Structure formats: structure tokens, C-alpha cells
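Ticket 4471: requesting a sanity check on a complex prediction with guanine. Repro inputs:
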Amino acid sequence: MSAEIIDGKLISQQVKDELKEKTLKLKEEGIEITLAVILVGEDPGSKVYVRNKKKACEYIGYRSLSYELPEETTQEELLDLVRELNDREDVDGILVQMPLPAHIDEKAVINAISPFKDVDGFHPENVGALCIGEKGFVSCTPAGIIQLLKRSCDGKIDISGKECVIVGRSNIVGKPMSLLMLRENATVTVAHSKTKNLKEVCKRADILIAAIGKAGMITKDYVKEGAIVIDVGINRNADGKLCGDVAFDEVKEIAGAITPVPGGVGPMTIAMLMNNCYEAGVMRRNKQAI
Ligand code: GUN
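Returned C-alpha cells:
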């Protein structure tokens, strides 16, 4: 039996439409949500991401402020801008697109963003809050994966008690993903490049999340029959075609459900960024805590 294909485009559209409706209600109360997006340099991939984030703001009804700074911007200049935006009453969320040019310390920039405006969920205070189960902003890709699991397969995926294997331990995906799955009461294993017997470890998974960055690495030999497979990878194969970390065509024949690339996890990241902006706006105005 072939796997159910989890439609990230459709689910992200649902999330955005829910936010659009809630944003309209805020507007009726005279509240407008603003996201400030900072891009330093000319990285073509980053330019596309930033454009898509601004487009999503437009769709939902947020105001977006755009700062496109030259490659040679100094760290101090960037930090000054972040501090200015931290202090501005009319700014709810601040996003500094990564990667930054090599002469700028990304950690220093992340630490400078007010945790209350850190809609990427990268600030140590937000990461720490996730770790101890307190409220705070959660990194958008892992938060999006939780929504994909909850909203697909007619809501029948039950995470509680399941074996979840995450391949990859990055600060943006693997680590926060493990904490979110723990919060959902999964039994969590984080595998990585040094893991022994990776195939056997992955084959234990009821829910397998691949965030490795290697095109097609997860073949059917890594997957238990009926498992839910979430593919976070965005790679280009030899023909320049976009593909994930999972060998989709063969794995879909044995998985219970699977996300495609493109059209799976990717669209959810922006939808969850938009959700964090909404939460930031509401929280800052003291309507409710996130
Ligand atoms: N670069 C790649 N992904 C991201 C992201 O989620 N947020 C930011 N700020 N930069 C990125």
C-alpha cells in the first residue's frame, strides 16, 4: 500500500487563513502587526526566503518593514539597527535572515534581539523556555512539523507514546524538534552523523524525521512499514532538481504517511513564522501570554 502524502501546502494555507481571519479582528480593534525583516548581503537563496516572508505578511494583513543592507555592513551597524527595532513600539517581530556574512557573529546578533520580538525562536531565552516547558517562541520548522502531524491523516496521528527518531541535531531543527516531540509524550531518539547502526535506529521509528541535508539518504531500508516519515531536507540533485533527505519514490511504497519535497515541511516554516508574529503582537499588547 502506498503512503498518504502529507500536503504541507494545503495545511500551511489553512494556518495562514486562520491567521488572516484573526488579524482582521485585531485590525477592527485598531491593532496592526508589524514584522521587521533584515537581510544583509546578496545571497540569492536568502533573497527568495525574504521575499516569500514579505509576501506571506501581505497575504495575512501584517505590515512588513524591509531592511536590505549591503554585504559590508559592520556588526555594530547591524546591532544598532536591531536595538532600534527592539525599542520601537510599532514593531512586533524582528527577523534577521541567516546566514550572515562571515565577518558578523550570528550569535551576537541573535542574542541582541529582544526575546519578546524573537519570532524565529532562536534567542537562548526562548530555547531555554522550550527546554523547561515554559511559554516562549519556538523555532518555526519544528513547530510546523508538529502542526503537520496534528492536522494531517484526518487528525488520526497520535504522537503520545510513539517511537520518534530525529536524524540531525541542529539548533534550528533537530534539537528543538526533540523537545517538542518530548512535550507531545513521544519516546525520542536523536541520531546524527556519529550514530552507529543508523539504519537499525531509524527502523525503530513510528515517526521518522530526517533533517540531515543529504539528498535521498533515507532509503526504504531505514524505514519501518507504516511509519510516518517527515522530510526536512532541501537539496538539489545532480539534475538541479529540488529533493529531500528521503528517497521519496521508494519510501512512499512502505511508509504510512510521508511529506514530499517541495510541498511538505517547507511551506509550514513560513506559516509558523506568521503565527509567531501574531503571538508576538498579541502578547506585547498584554492581551494574553503565548
Ligand atoms: N535561514 C534559513 N532558515 C532560516 C530561518 O528560519 N530564519 C532565519 N532568520 N534565517 C534562516
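Notes from triage: The CA atoms of residues 179 and 281 lie 25 Å apart. Leaving this open until the requester confirms.
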